[in-house]
Structure formats: C-alpha cells, structure tokens
Amino acid sequence: MSLIPSSLIEVRRTQGKGRGVFARAPIGEGTVIERAPVLVIPAIEVDENPYDTVIARYCFQWGAKSVAVVLGYGSLYNHSYRPNAYYRDRRNRVKEFIALRDIKPGEEITINYNGSPHDRTDVGFEAT
After folding, report:
1. CA pseudo-torsion sign 83, 89, 95, 97
2. 0.70 exceeded by pTM
3. What pLDDT score was predicted for residue 127?
C-alpha cells in the first residue's frame, strides 16, 4: 500500500480550532483522501498528564492500552457530528480518510472522532 502524500488537501488555520485539513481540489464521494502511517504509543504516556502534553490533543485511541499519532495530516482533521469524511484502520498501522460526500475546494474536511460518522457520543468538548 502506497503512502504518498495527497495533493488533494492542505493544512490551514481555522477559526476556533487551530489547524484543520482543507480540500485543495474537488473530492468526490468515496475518494480516499489520505492514507497515513500510524505511530502507536502506550496510552500511559499521554493519560497520566493529558493536559501537560501537546501530543495528547492529537491522539486516537488504539486498543485498550495504546494511543496512536497519525502522521501525514491524519492527526489534524477536526471533529464534527456532521462530518464530510470518515476514517478506517487498515493493516500495517495505516489509517485511511475517505470522503462521505462530495467535498468542494476550500471546504474543511472533518471526521467524527467516535469512529462512526453517525455516533453522537460525547467527545469531551463542545462540538458541532
């Protein structure tokens, strides 16, 4: 599986969220936006003092005792309960980000941090 950076996206500042991932070109529904390698680390390294480490803000849960930092732009996608993309875990510690619908150039690409685009479980901060 190739892990070539995507020319479809870029990182920009976004109001109230810091950074976010944005479409540089039209992205069709079902398109794999990005394939990103994952670094898995013991959860204890971020759970003991989650507010004392910047990295804790960028981690995904990865099993019962691990978290993952997704390289590429993977850890920069912002959360939404009305996302236009979703992610799935692939073999060899790779996370894929896929368009749920057509995405216009300049539009922020968001995912639901709960994993399922329709999951409305509280994510621990105010979310849209």
Report:
1. negative
2. yes
3. 59
